[in-house]
Each structure stands twice: as structure tokens, then as C-alpha cells.
Amino acid sequence: MSGPRQPGRWSLRRRLGLGLAGAMAALWLAAATVAGLVLQHEIGEVFDSALQEVAQRVLPLAYSELLSREAGDTPQHMAPIGPHREYITYVVRDGAGRVLLQSSDAELMAIPAGLAPGFHSTDRLRTYTEAAVSGTIVVTTAEDLGHRAAAVRRAVAALIWPLGALVPIALAGVWLSVRLSLKPVLAFRRAIEARGHGNLTPVATAGLPEEVAPVAAAVNALLDRLRGALDAERGFTANSAHELRTPIAAALAQTQRLMVELPEGPEQDRAHAIAGALRRLSRLSEKLLQLAKAEGGGLVAEVPAPLAPVLRHVVSDIDRQTGRGTDIALSIPANGGPLSDLDPDAFAILARNLIENALKHGKPETPVEVRLDDGLFEVANCGPVVPADVLAGLVRPFQRGPTGAEGSGLGLAIAAAICRGAGLTLDLASPIPGAADGFRATVRFPAAPRS
């Protein structure tokens, strides 16, 4: 899984999703605006045609009415047939402007008189005037412009309201499409994230889009170069260890032979001092090489392996060299202990340094408790309490606590370097929780082996 998004970072999926959905919404609004303008023009033409048609149909009726009426008759109102809303009204006038005939709502419309034939617009009305019989009969039809505007608004609203449903659907569709399209890229990202802590296996490039495939090839080339550099470093470390151990061992053997051949006296004492110095040099060179390995990488194996056999071998080797195997209380689960992708050699160095540190600084009469369990490796010993300010510095090279035992001050630094490089956690506690004294080092493994 990826970690939390860092400040200043942006998501390609989110940007594509919001950008495409926003572009669709903007295009829809633009299309609705253009459609509204076209509708406004078309609706205007339709209603103008209706005004003209009403005027032309009313004109013959008005002429018949004029012939049949008697002088002095009052204007006739055309009664509505049933309740209805009259959108187009009309009024018929004679040449002098007197009203002869009008629709039921004509008075409410206040249609102006004296209009020339044709279309006219006022602030609130759209009119059409038609004249006949040499201008003695004038028919004017009128429509409220608010009715036209309302019709346009309703038509445009019918185009726009689906946008409220379209935007969430578009967001979901775009998000799903982008997610499916970027799925190989996300798998590539997770594969790169899994290549931390020395795991330098090539990243799978199958299924990657052509825009990302060159990046994957460059990453694999870089991993290959890093793997070559780490292999060269491991080879140098191994060769250096061999080259250092051989002359030191030879010098120590010659010194020990000289100790036997020399008579008791100052010369033999100096030979003993030289032998002690060579032993310390041998241990120091071994610790320095272990520290170089811990800080140099290559601490993660490609395939997870059990740690219990490695721990048993380390305890057996310590017993063979020091004879203190009986001072170690080893606890390993019956199921054989956890699997881990920590390199077996790195775990052997880690366990050996923690156990030797506990044997060296613990009380001789109490055993060192070594426990390997799912998720942790723990080493605890009885001994004086290490002050909190000193405890935090013990993971630095050549830092030692208040003890008279011999040592180089590198054991905990090596263990801490291995834990950092392998993605583990090292916790130091003194006194042991629930006890009055003692020292405990706990290494916590990830919940599951990394693949």
C-alpha cells in the first residue's frame, strides 16, 4: 500500500476525473446556451407566424361583422369558450380607430392604436397589424413578450436540468475509466515501492502503456546497476574479511608460539599483551566489517525464509566459542518460528550482536532470555539500569553504557543499522518493563513478508 499523500503532491486520477467531468459540464452548458439562442429565434418566428395567422383569420370575420352591425352599436367582445388562458389577443378597429371587435383579454393587454401594418415591438408586447378595405378595417394581434421569454426559459431549463444528474454520472464514469486505464501504472508504482530495503528484482513491464514502458525499462536498468554494485560490495566485504582474518590469525598464532617458547619474564608478558591486542583487533575488524555490511544494503532476501534455524546455529556457535550456551534461555514457537525476507546472514549478525551484548553486560548468574516469535525477536538480560539519556545513544558507533566489560561499542550500532536497512524496528528498554532492572532489545518484523 502506498503511504499518505505528501503536501504539494497531486493525483493524476483526480485531476483527469475532475478535468474531464468539468469539460463535459462546460460543453453541455455551452451547447445549452447555443441551443437557447436558437430556440429563442425559432420560438420568435413561430409566435410571429401565429400572430400573423390569427390576424388574417380574424380579418374576414371582422368584415362580416362590420357589414351586419348597425350604426351606434357598441364594440363586440368575443366571449371565450370555456376557461382558458389567452396568449394571443386581437382587436379590430375602423379607420377612425374605434374598436369594432376584440377578444376577451384585449382590454387587459392595452393594445395600442394607430400601428402601421406589419410587426412591431414595445416594452412588453409583440404586435402584428393587418389592414383591409382601403384601411377601413384594421386588425391588430398582440402577445405578451413575457410569454415568449417564459417559453424560452422552460426550453433551456429542460436542456440544463439533466446536467445535475450528468455531472455525478460523468464523474463516476470518468473515475472508473481512468482507474481502469491507470491500473497497470498503479501496479507498476506498487512494484517500485516493494523494491525498498535491498529488494532489487526487476519490475514486471507487461501490460504497461507505451508512455510508461520506457520508464519501467529505465528503472529496471537502474536496479540492475544497483544490484551489480551491491554484489561487488558484498564481494569486497567478504574478500576484505578473509584478507584481514588471515594475517591477524597468523600473527596471533606466531605470538602464541612465541609465548610458549619464551621463558617467564618481561618478554613473555609482552607476548601476552601482543596476543591480547591481536584478539581485540580481530574482534574489532570483524565488527567493522559487519557494520559495513549492515550499512551497505543487501539485507533483504528475494524469498522469505524461516529464522529459527539461523538462530539455533548462532546460539550453537556462541556456545562452541565461549562455552556459555547454558547461559542462554532460548524460546522458539513449536511451529518453527516466523518467515521473514530478512537476509539470513544479516539476521545471524543481528542476533549474534544482541546475544553477545547481553551475555557481556548481564549478570553471570542469570540467563539471557532469547525469544523468537511471530512479529518479533527479543533479547533480555538482568543487569544495572541504563540511564535514559545514555540509552538513546547506544545505537551510535563506539557508544557504551556504564559498564566495565570489554567491548568495542559497535554491537548495538550494527543491530540498529541492520534494522534500518531492512525496514525493521529496534526498541531498547532499561529497566525491563515490569522489572526493577535489566536491559531488553526488541526487533519487530513487519506484519507479513514483503513480496
Topology:
Elements (H helix, E strand, L loop, with lengths): L11 H57 L7 E2 L10 E7 L4 E4 L3 H4 L8 E4 L3 E8 L4 E8 H16 L1 H32 L19 H49 L4 H31 L3 E7 L1 H15 L5 E4 L7 E4 L1 H18 L6 E6 L2 E6 L6 H4 L19 H12 L2 E5 L9 E6 L7
Parallel strand pairs: 1-3, 8-10
Antiparallel strand pairs: 2-3, 2-6, 4-5, 5-6, 7-9, 10-11, 11-13, 12-13
Helix pairs in contact: 1-3, 1-4, 5-6, 6-10, 7-8, 8-10
Structural write-up:
The protein is of the alpha+beta class. It has 3 domains: 14-160, Beta-Lactamase (2-Layer Sandwich); 194-296; 299-451, 2-Layer Sandwich (Heat Shock Protein 90), CATH 3.30.565. 53% of the residues lie in helices and 16% in strands. It is built from 10 helices and 13 strands. The strands form 3 sheets. Strands 1-3-2-6-5-4 form a 6-stranded mixed beta sheet. A 5-stranded mixed beta sheet has the order 8-10-11-13-12, with helices on one face. β2 (88-94) and β3 form a beta hairpin. α8 (344-361) runs antiparallel to α10 (411-422). The two termini are 12 Å apart. The chain crosses the membrane at residues 159-182. InterPro entries: HAMP_dom, HATPase_C_sf, HATPase_dom, His_kinase_dom, HisK_dim/P_dom, HisK_dim/P_sf, TCS_sensor_his_kinase. One of its GO terms (molecular function) is ATP binding. It comes from Xanthobacter autotrophicus (strain ATCC BAA-1158 / Py2).
